[in-house]
What we know:
By secondary structure, the chain is α/β, with parallel strands linked by helices.
Amino acid sequence: MSLIIDCHGHYTTAPEALGEYREQQKKDLETDPLFEHVRGVINISDEQLRESLEGAQLKLQSERGTDITIFSPRASWMGHHIGNQSTSKYWTEHCNELIYRITELYPRNFIGAAQLPQSPGADLHASAAELERCVKEYGFVGCNLSPDPSGGYWTAPRLDDPYWYPIYEKMIELEVPAMIHVSGTCHRCFDTTGSHYLGADTTAFQQLMMAKTLFKDFPNLKFIIPHGGGAVPYHWGRFRGLSDMMKLQPLDEFIDNNIYFDTCVYHQEGIDLLVNVVPTGHILFASEMVGAVRGIDPKTGYYFDDTKRYIDACALSDEDKQLVFSGNVRSVFTRLDARLETVGLL
Ligand SMILES: [Zn+2]
């Protein structure tokens, strides 16, 4: 039996000291939005890290029968819109460091993906530097890139704009993909994990679909559109039609080497649609646990985010299921195999 690799998990159960650090940052910004933070210290012991995971992500991995999770800091807390570049820089460094420590404590359960210190209006050089640090020093294999660091106001250029090229260049150099993932919203019209996340997934896909030269400039740039691709698979016909009207390349050709979707869709009918519509080579297993939706579905008696059950029950062949559970993840996250070998899982 091949591995079951969950490519989308967040550290949503961190000890209180992490949140307290963030609250202090916000206080520092109250009188001066340009406040230059210092890095500071967060005291969290290994024992506290273990406690925070053993009753949650680790327990669920073993109950559900998944093997290893590509693990990143809590997405809704990335909060790139808060403060300035120095706010994001130190906050991100601490968040990534905790992930690194977890991957050292549980090397066979977690592999890291980086938060990036994006900040509205700031260029991407700090993000490129942090990605390099996380990949080279911490052994991370991916990153979460927000298309909207303003937290719901969409003030950044579109994803094909040269504004983003410093991070794309670094992704190519390091051979890591990015999951396109927004953070919490500060816009009153959106709900973070409902409309803002799914809207951003859909928006990112459309932006990338309309990109003129991006994938000519970076033929091997790889993006994962999370949460099942937002509205995209459900509206595949609309996107194919728009692409045709705009005289873009056919959708299958556009996604061919660059665009992938995860399986964070929390009901059987949604997964059935996803695997029916999207070419199998572009679907990566993920649950986003412990994440946005934590309850048990009263219709099934199982957790909504127990997505392995939906894949097990869908109509794909066993061979295709293995691609979704591990083969596709291993080919998109180019550095993953080496890491799996190091920890004895390959
Ligand atoms: Zn997520």
